[in-house]
């Protein structure tokens, strides 16, 4: 895997002032400018972070994982039904994400949680020190950045939108900071349903609206508009500044605050997949909030299995499943 290129970052203003491709060549933001934009807008973009050869390898490894082929010791924490190639003669070979061009069987959003646990290539990507360092520095985390979770969201042709949501409410840690790195594994255009951010929405109140079961509602902005109304924003449909990552090439990535509202549209293509992976980072020193974590299907095993007569309210996270990706000390090696 080649090194990660985070030298050319773009802000929301850059995206509003022209195409991603044109801004990539013309814009050179300092780190201080990017950090200020992250603080004010809730996200920044790095158009060419991962090289094309690495992207192709990740695409192939994703297909392997979707077919149950793992090269590390553990399965993912969540995976869709495995894709099985038909042995019937004359049946066309399934394409990316199991799509055969005829049926709608695989025209649903496919989600994999913690693919890094089962695949060495995705593990190397998720634990890249330059990514962890950029996250930690943008967020101002003094002790470093730890990988909490990864999520693959893969949309075959015709699959539905992903509802606008925040990431932070699903992480039961203290401190409660979350920063997500989203990496495009396909060239993003409007037809595929690119990621969209609501500029400045990370500064709204902390109230949670909806749950993970709401991710695939037909009205992808209903929860967003409800949250905006609670914030006292009038005419949200026309007043919110929604910024699309249409034009982001495969290998480009964005980094967003865990409280930034974001979502994506339907994949309206008839023959192209829309693939991406989100890496969710938390401060290096996080601990589980035990009572909250016990309510989560994903987190409860860490606190229920290890809980004893200890009456403390928090519990440390295990390094094996929550790897420390960057600390200031790593820079000094």
Verbal overview:
By secondary structure, the protein is an alpha+beta fold. The chain is built from eleven helices and 14 strands. The chain has helices at about 10-15, 20-25, 30-40, 50-65, 120-125, 130-140, 220-230, 235-240, 290-295, 300-305, 330; strands spanning about 45, 110-115, 145-155, 160-165, 175, 180-185, 195-200, 240-245, 255, 260-265, 275-285, 285-290, 315, 325. Strands 1, 2, 3, 6, 9, 11 and 14 form a seven-stranded antiparallel β-sheet that branches. The chain has a four-stranded antiparallel β-sheet with strand order 4-10-7-8. The protein has a three-stranded antiparallel β-sheet with strand order 5-12-13. It is globular. The two termini are about 20 Å apart.
Q: Work out the helix count.
A: 11
Shape call: globular
> What's the mean pLDDT score?
89
> Which structural class matches the secondary elements?
alpha+beta
Quickly list its features.
single chain, 333 residues, alpha+beta, 7-stranded antiparallel sheet, 4-stranded antiparallel sheet, 11 helices, 14 strands
Briefly say what this structure is.
With 333 residues, the chain is of the alpha+beta class. It has 11 helices and 14 strands.
Secondary structure: elements and pairs:
Layout: H1 12-16, H2 20-26, H3 31-41, E1 43-46, H4 52-66, E2 110-113, H5 120-126, H6 129-139, E3 145-155, E4 162-165, E5 173-174, E6 179-184, E7 195-198, H7 222-230, H8 236-239, E8 242-244, E9 253-257, E10 262-264, E11 274-283, E12 287-289, H9 290-293, H10 300-304, E13 314-316, E14 324-326, H11 328-331
Antiparallel strand pairs: 1-9, 2-3, 3-11, 3-14, 4-10, 5-12, 6-9, 6-11, 7-8, 7-10, 12-13
